[in-house]
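FAQ: What does the model actually see?

It sees only this:
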Amino acid sequence: MNSNWRRQAIAVPPLRAGLPADLAALLADADAAASRGALFDDDGALGRLIGRPTTSMQSLVAASLHG
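And it is asked to produce this:
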């Protein structure tokens, strides 16, 4: 999928909800960056920031499916 088209598509719901265009664009750009791995961190920075170990998405899904 063309990344520019994706950013525009992601910006539509916030715009329809009444958010300013600049904020909708910011959210769309953040989503696009996250999809390219911008939030990946393997050095534990997030865990140090929040004061506890982080949990992988795989672990969260498995825990929710198994009770």
